[in-house]
Automatic annotation (TrEMBL), chain B:
Keyword terms of this UniProt record: Cell membrane, Membrane, Transmembrane, Transmembrane helix, Transport
Species for this entry: Actinoalloteichus hoggarensis
First-listed, main subcellular location of the protein, grouped into a coarse class: membrane
Protein encoded by which gene: gsiC5
Name recorded for this polypeptide: Glutathione transport system permease protein GsiC
MF GO annotations: dipeptide transmembrane transporter activity
Amino acid sequence: MLVACAATTACTVANSDSTGDAGEAGDSLRIVLDQEPPTLEPCEASLTSTGVVTRSNISEPLIERDPTTGELEPLLATAWEQVSDTEWRMDVRDDVSFHDGAAFTAEDAAFSIDRAVNNSALACNVDGYVFGDQELGLEVVDDTTFTITTETPDPILPLRLSFIEVVPRTTSTEAKVREPVGTGPYAVAAWDTGVSITLHRHEDYWGEAPSFSRVRYVWRTESSVRAAMIATDEADLATGLNPEDATPENSLPYPNNETTALRLDGREAPLDDIRVRRAIDLAIDRHGIVDALFDGQALPAAQLVPEGVVGHNADLTVGEADPDTARALVEEAAADGVPVDREITLIARNGQFPKVAETAEALQYQLSQVGLSVRIQMADTAAHLEYQLRPFPEDVGPVALLIMHGNQAGDAGFTTSQYLLSDGPQSTFGTPELDERIAEADQAADDDRQDAFAGVFAEQNESLAQYAYLAHMQGLLGISPRVSYEPNSATGDELRLADVRPER
Amino acid sequence: MLTFLRKRIISSAVPLVVVVFGVFLLARLTGDPTNLYLPVSATAEQRAEFAAANGFDQPIHVQLWDYLGQVLRFDFGVSLRTGQPAGDMVLAAFPATLQLAAVTMLIAIVGAVLLGSLAAYRPNSPADRSASFLSMTAASIPDFWFAIMGVLILGVGLEWLPTSGVDGGIEVWILPIATLLIRPFGVLVQVVRGAMVAALAAPYVKVARSKGASEPRVVFGHALRNASVPALTVAGDLTIGLVNGAVVVETIFGWPGIGKLMIDSILQRDFAVLQTAVLLTAVTIFVLNILIDVCYALLDNRVRQTVPA
């Protein structure tokens, strides 16, 4: 067959197109992802694998958050105003068209919000991650104006709206759309399932035309293969390189707003004793783990959100590991009858970040050095989620769950509601006092909001110690000399094609 | 022959049914897929709706019964992950894996027959030792490592081949096939060599030579026919292994086949796609087994008479 193939060039692989795997360079941008998006549905854009392709490329939000400054900027909206505690008015552009030629109006904007937030049958991910269980009232005033009403005051509603991608009012409300129509600079040209996704430039785009007329995404699971594709000029950009595959020539590091930590289940002995939780915090050698396992491509962490997120507390600093004090705390707890010899299960997820298994082993060793007994359990995503989300599994003993939390919204409210509230979907315990502080911080705005959430993070470390933090992680973007792009904290979730230009 | 065929079909169908039932039940033991597909704030009602929409709220025997009914109507359900019909996804991915496995096996069999026969023709000669060393090495190399080395040396270092991908000419086939080929080729060379050494020492070979038959006719006409029976059995098993062994190749090289689809379906608890992929693979292996048995019986009359009832 290979001989015949060579002679006739009839070597097409089944289930593939014939447009050239990486595409011709020329006027094309070639991107290799670490996985195929499950869907390009805009209301699922808060999922990294979908958002990296869809957000601000195929579809666009009304408001966009600048990942560097944190400022909100108008995109499809031209202005917004808080009319009362619970009502907002939004004005939208009148010169925008969808890929199918239909004109964009306020009705489309209101429809998109309603579809993503109020439609429980559709169960959009953006609803859960960004809006929780709140419902929004929407009223279209005219073609360029509509109002939004919230059930309770929501000072960061515009920030939440930056996660809603706009779709035409004709989009299905019964089922998610795999290949959406949007207003973005690129439209879906073809999705060759399992092989590639091709976008072409939307010629009637309302904004500045992007540099490349065609974008082709392929996906390779192995980081080393993605790096190789950059080296051989098969790809211009490669997401999620591992440190060992990255060099200064083929990649750019960027802070990706992800923070790794151990979540300690405070409902089970010995983790229900704060001395034991503090001992775990003191036992961890964060600097050693970052240097030895993350190649220095991370910052030791003392809280769940990195600098740049509203609510980050600059006064919380990372000290050196103190195994002697940790051991003394464990012994003190043991003297009071706490069963410190009870085995703790450290659960980590395969592929969560580079060297995750080695990190778990390092943690196991460091905790064993202070008198705790730890066994490691590696899990896949689905199994890990069972431990991460309520309702938590019963009768599984004390669990230290290795989590990685990404706050792409840039506001601590999205972190605390999930991880610190007593009944937060990803929190094992809390206190009424901290819940109250979180609720107050949620209602605050501007500097008051920053100070209130900074206080919440300090209080969590002081009074609860549910989390023993590891590091604020960094991403590595593979990039070829053919193109110029400056990655930012949102790059992992929203790779804006319009920001990519020819030649570095 | 028809009786033989009927008995083989019945005996081969049992594992087929067991696999289909087993995958259905084991998939459901891996846990609830709800967390993967619903937002973190999903209410109890939303979770109940999701479970009801996908039949997860039913007792497992009811789910199994419904599934079998669907399969008989050629309705394989919808992927939780992509929303596409599971049958379409699997049918789109399967040919790419079959292509890879078929070409690989063809090369492995032809190469192994030539190298194995050459080695067996002069036992313990330098040629025999070289062939044995090569085949043992090939059978022992981890395919994952081999693939990555291939990418680094032939793709990045020498720039002779693309690193991965499926669009293009012959060049896109070379690394995936080489990776998939090494183990079956190594094993088959050993099997062919062993069988040929025994066959070339048999009395009928001496008779053929005494009657003046040419050496190629002796080796490839007389000895190989008898040596091919064990080789065929091993080749069949290796082919079956290739369909599943393609996972590594498909993952590394971005080959859009069923192996990668299966792994993704397992990780994403995408039951409909997983069940359909396993069903199609099991049916293919079932057919392949029957074909191997028929070839085996054609080559050796004794097989037809000793088949268990």
